[in-house]
Every structure is written in C-alpha cells, then in structure tokens.
Amino acid sequence: MTAALIAEGLVAGYGAAEQILKGASVAVQPGEIVTIIGPNGAGKSTLLKAVAGLLKIAEGRVAVAGRDVTAQDAIGRARAGLAFVPQEANVFARLSVAENLSISGFLDPKGSATELEKIYARYPMLAGKRRALARSLSGGQRQILAMAMGLMQQPTMMLLDEPTAGLSPRAAEELFAAVIDLNRAGLPVLMVEQHAVEALRISHRGYVLVAGRNSVEGAGPALAEDPDIRRLFLGG
Amino acid sequence: MEALLQAVVNGLLAGSLIAVPAVGFTAIFAILRYPSFAIAGYVSVGAFAGWAANTMLGFGAPLAVLVAFAAGAAAGLLCELGALRRLMPAGALTVAIASIAVNLILENILRFFFGNDLRGFDLPIQPDLIIGGIFVGLQQIWNLVLAVAVVAAVFAFLMFTRFGRAMRAVADNPDLARLKGIDPARIAAIAVALGAGLAGAGGVLLGLDTSIDPMTGYRVLLSVFAAAVLGGLGSIPGAVAGALALGIAEELALLVVPATYRTGVGFVAILLILTFRPRGLLGERAA
Ligand SMILES: Nc1ncnc2c1ncn2[C@@H]1O[C@H](COP(=O)(O)OP(=O)(O)OP(=O)(O)O)[C@@H](O)[C@H]1O
Ligand SMILES: [Mg+2]
C-alpha cells in the first residue's frame, strides 16, 4: 500500500541560524489520523511547513501518495494533493467566507464548485455566514472555515497545525469531531496538537518530536495513556 | 455659500480624475509592497498614447482611455519585469528609489519624441452648464462618467473574477495564497499591469480636462500619492475616498489661499493623516 505521506530525514530551518529540524520523519498511511506532539519550540510547525513546501529543506525527502515532491514548491505540493492549514493567519481576514472558500479552489475552479455545495451541507454554519468577513468569525468558526478551505483543494492529505489552539473546550471537541468525520470519509490527516491527550485518543498513531528529532512513536490511544509521555509533555 | 458649493463640486470633479491613478498606485502597493513613483511616468505615457489615438486616429474619449490603459500597462510591465523586479531582494526602499528613476526615463523618452509643447485633445467644444447657480463643464461631466466607469470596472474585476479575487487574497495573506496554489509572481504582474494601466487611463482623463506634456504625470504625483496615503496605502476604496477628499480639500483651500499653495494641501493632508490616522481615512490597513 502506498503511504499517503512520507517525510523522511527532514533537515530544515530559517536561514542563517541553526537548523530547527535535525532529521525528523513522519509517515501517514491511507485512512489514518496521525498526531505530532512535543514541547513548545520542538519544531512541530516547522515540520509541517517543510512538508507543505513553505520552507526549503536542506536534506530529506517528501512524497505524497507515492509521488516524490521534494523538488516542488508550495504550489506544486498543493497540486500534488496536500492541503495545509497553518497555525496562524489561516484564513484571508478581509475576504468574505464565500470568497475564502472559492479562492481556495483556485487550482480547480470546476471541481471545487461541486465541492462547495458539499461543504455548505457539511458545515451549515458557513452557509449561514457566506457574506461575513472571515475576521468577524469566532475562533471556532474560523478554524472550521480554515479546514473547509483545505477541503476546497480536494486534497489527498490534510495537514492541520494546532486546529484547536485558543478554542473553548466545547469548540475544541466539535473540531475534533469534524476531523474524525473527514477521516471517516477517507481523508488522511496529519495534525500537530497541544491538547495532546484528546488528540492522541482520536489518532491511529502518534509521534513525539523533541528538539527537531523523533523521540517516541506509537499507537495514539496507547501514547495518550503512557505515564512517561503524560509526565513529560502533558503535565498529567 | 454658492462659492462653497462650487468648490465642493469642482473638488469632486478633480478628485474623480485623481482617483483613477490613485487606485493604480495603491493596487501596486497592495501586492508588491513598494510605493511606485514610476506611476507618474505611466500617467504621461498613457496621456500621450491616448492623445495620439485621438488626434491621429480619430478615436473618441472612451476609446482613447482604453488605448491609454493598454499603453500604461505595457510600459508598467516592461519597467517592472525589465528593471524594478530585479531590485526586489534589496528591499522596498531601493525599488521605490529606482521607480523615481524609471519615471525620469519615461518622461524623457516622451520629451525626445514629442517635445515639451502642451498638447490638447481634439474634442468638440462643450458648453458649460449652470445648475442651481453652479458652473459645470459638460466635458467635465463626461470625464467624471468615464472615471466612474473605469473605477467600477476595477471593482468588478476584483470582486467577481478569479484573478481579481486572487489579487485580493495575495494582498491579504501572501503565504496562505501560495498554499492555495496562487503564484505570487503572476499576481504581481497582473497588479502592475492593472496599476500602470489605470495610471495611463488617468493620464487621458487629466488631459481631456486640460492639456498634456511629458510632465503631466509628475505634476499630479503628489496628489496621487497623498490620495493613496489618505485612504490607507493598499486600500482601493480608500484611494477613491482619499482622492475625492483631497480634491475637495484643495478646492476649499483655494478659497482662502492663493492658487500657488494648492499642492501644499497634499503635503498637509499627508502630514495630518500620518500623525492622527496612520491607517488612513477608512482605517483598513497599516501603511
Ligand atoms: N519564521 C521563523 N523565523 C525564525 N525562527 C523561527 C521561525 N518560526 C519558528 N522559528 C523558531 O523555530 C523553532 C521551532 O519553532 P516551531 O514553530 O516549529 O515550534 P513548535 O513546535 O510548533 O512550537 P509551538 O508548540 O509553540 O507551536 C523555535 O525556536 C522558533 O523560535
Ligand atoms: Mg507550532
């Protein structure tokens, strides 16, 4: 079976300074939810940016659905089927909800027009706020919009960076439910999360990233209950 | 009272002409993040192209505006791709200074071919209308209609077309736009073509009102810049509002100060707005 995503031995950083990623690897199999956890500054966001092509990688390779995309930039990787929802500034603040969605289907205007109907059916809240500016949405609504914008790309692989950051417990729960929902429909998901226990519980597998390198990996629920992990990263 | 009303009407008419290049200036700033003083050169190039189309080919004003748009856009793309873009890595200030040089080059190319003479468009003389004691030239009303049509077309492009929306997306959040598959270099080229084209169209509108020479663009540069700053750099509705406000302010100032101080109004407006409302009249975005 071809992996939905393989990132191997990534070395990357922000210019002159020391490399942030020092050989990190992740893989996502078809149908999986995979969560990356780790301390602040471990390089989790950097890893997703490197996978999405926003950051040049010095070493390593990235493959999407069996296709090597290491040489491609962010646009090429979007074409290859990757949708990345960043941690911050993940919507076009001064565009309306409807415009945010339609512009996210830029690469395939026809296909994404069909997708739009499905998205409005799946998230009636967005349908009700079509004309609202994205910046007027609540935190939870904005994250749903950002994820829906990812769906407009008709991706084969979804990357989410801290989708529940700053959300109320209830909104976070709803967002996790939405992630499970998408995954059941067949979309593989790789996410970074601070709400580690909740995220690992809904994940097939999890990775712990420390100082730019893989530390522990294992089945999601097992990691969520692992006393060492809980003590080290989850404050539990 | 009538003098006041007359000044407001004159200001709106003059402001509507400035609005066209001001929208162009702010569109380039919104995407490329540098103030393009070359816009003055694009105004003059458009003015001469429209003038040539009018006096040599017999085109009417609306067609001359279209020709000017095309000429301005072509000049803009040539200067951007040929010179300015290469300086981008050196920073916005370097590109801004280079754009002043581009303006001088364009101005002198025009001077080489056309000389310094004032040239007028070949149009039927239109009567002045007197409405409720206010004088308005019929030609000025036509110019206003043309300016409104041009600005409306820009809004329609930005709101309803795929690339217009993509332009707004890049202005809002370039990284996210890239993630959605939008190529920033392509959008930058579209923004320059649009901005320089609008400057060119503005050149004809200004020329229809008076006359043209190679300095036509340079003479309105300060007003264009002030209008864009007034509206909040990068905001297109802001540039329109800024141009109208500036036009009215200039005409009102003429009621109390001699005409030589007219351009001073632009400087004062920039000072006041940067001091008290750095995000512009409509407060859309930080400069
Ligand atoms: N744009 C940037 N330029 C320079 N350094 C950066 C940049 N973004 C992040 N860094 C640095 O890279 C390191 C890893 O940051 P990263 O955002 O990947 O961490 P993270 O694991 O996502 O942390 P968090 O849990 O806080 O989101 C940090 O030391 C950070 O300061
Ligand atoms: Mg992060």
From TrEMBL, chain A:
Molecular-function annotations in GO: ATP binding; ATP hydrolysis activity; branched-chain amino acid transmembrane transporter activity
Keyword line: Amino-acid transport, ATP-binding, Nucleotide-binding, Transport
InterPro entries linked: AAA+_ATPase, ABC_transporter-like_ATP-bd, BCAA_Transport_ATP-bd_LivF, P-loop_NTPase
Taxonomy, superkingdom: Bacteria
Coiled coil spans: none
Any Gene Ontology biological process: L-amino acid transport
Domain ABC transporter: 5-236
Similarity remark: Belongs to the ABC transporter superfamily.
Entries under PANTHER family matching the protein: HIGH-AFFINITY BRANCHED-CHAIN AMINO ACID TRANSPORT ATP-BINDING PROTEIN LIVF
Protein name listed in UniProt: ABC transporter ATP-binding protein
Automatic annotation (TrEMBL), chain B:
Gene Ontology terms: cellular component: plasma membrane
CDD domains in the record: TM_PBP1_LivH_like
Positions of transmembrane segments: 12-32, 39-57, 63-84, 91-114, 141-160, 187-208, 220-245, 252-276
Membrane topology: Multi-pass membrane protein
Subcellular location: Cell membrane
UniProt GO BP: amino acid transport
Pfam families listed in its UniProt record: BPD_transp_2
Keyword set includes Transmembrane helix: yes
Keywords for the protein's UniProt record, in alphabetical order: Amino-acid transport, Cell membrane, Membrane, Transmembrane, Transmembrane helix, Transport
Molecular functions per Gene Ontology: transmembrane transporter activity
Keyword Manganese belongs to the record: no
InterPro entries: ABC_transp_permease, BCAA_transport_permease
Family in the record: Belongs to the binding-protein-dependent transport system permease family. LivHM subfamily.
Full protein name: Amino acid ABC transporter permease
Annotated organism of origin: Teichococcus deserti
